[in-house]
Q: What sequence folds into this?
């Protein structure tokens, strides 16, 4: 059995590099409000709560923010009892920006990667450019829509109340499947020692470790590598990361984002896929 390394941050439901100026973002670049790095395939945001330093993973799979119960004790919030949600009065980001009164789902368990998850709702006053080609994510004031999107593929979000979901097709099948784009999920390993997108509907005509063509928004995307062997992931990990969720057919993670920049218009719940 090939060793699989599972990297994931959600606890609910979870070519050469090109500079921004070279792909036509020049004018829009001047309006960047926040920039955060992508480390080890995950968008990382440094922050502090009550003078305690932490980091969160930004994931587009969920609208909801998540915090581990152990952190609440560390920041002086005790006796939460059976509460499932809590409002954090103030979060200070590493660049000094302060977020006020953000709601979190409380969890007892957490992934080893992070104890705090930021969902799409955390930055609902911004638009987001996810550029794994540059190992960065960029946040812009929501009123700023760049002209370079004219050449990108616009896609409606299927279930905006949940996260970045859309419908598409898989080469070799005429059926429509539910895709989820998750900046916080990847499987690494296998016979080629690389990252893979994850197939949850194992009946799909997709061979593990090999590349396939998918269609999203009427456009084909070739050479996407997939992992279609959930039996190689422990039951604990499948339950912990909601991989038994039969609603989602495919999760597009790091392997897809590394090839395609994604722009998210959060208020209008549309997203755009850039060229490889």
A:
């Amino acid at each position: 059995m090939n060793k699989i390394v599972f990297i994931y941050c959600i606890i609910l439901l979870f070519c050469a590099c090109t500079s921004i100026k070279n792909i036509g973002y020049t004018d829009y670049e001047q309006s960047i409000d926040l920039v955060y790095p992508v480390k080890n395939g995950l968008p990382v945001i440094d922050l502090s709560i009550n003078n305690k330093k932490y980091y969160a993973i930004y994931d587009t799979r969920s609208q909801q923010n998540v915090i581990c119960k152990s952190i609440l004790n560390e920041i002086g919030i005790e006796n939460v009892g059976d509460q499932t949600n809590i409002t954090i009065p103030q979060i200070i980001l590493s660049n000094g920006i302060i977020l006020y009164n953000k709601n979190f789902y409380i969890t007892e368990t957490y992934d080893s990667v992070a104890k705090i998850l930021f969902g799409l709702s955390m930055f609902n006053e911004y638009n987001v450019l996810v550029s794994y080609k540059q190992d960065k994510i960029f946040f812009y004031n929501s009123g700023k829509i760049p002209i370079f999107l004219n050449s990108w593929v616009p896609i409606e979000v299927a279930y905006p109340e949940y996260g970045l979901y859309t419908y598409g097709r898989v080469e070799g099948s005429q059926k429509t499947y539910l895709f989820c784009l998750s900046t916080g999920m990847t499987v690494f390993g296998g016979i080629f020692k690389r990252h893979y997108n994850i197939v949850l509907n194992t009946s799909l005509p997709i061979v593990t470790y090999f590349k396939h063509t998918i269609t999203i928004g009427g456009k084909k995307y070739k050479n996407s590598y997939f992992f279609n062997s959930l039996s190689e992931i422990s039951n604990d990990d499948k339950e912990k990361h909601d991989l038994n969720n039969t609603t989602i057919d495919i999760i597009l993670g790091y392997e897809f984002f590394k090839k395609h920049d994604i722009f998210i218009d959060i208020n209008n719940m549309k997203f755009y896929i850039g060229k490889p």
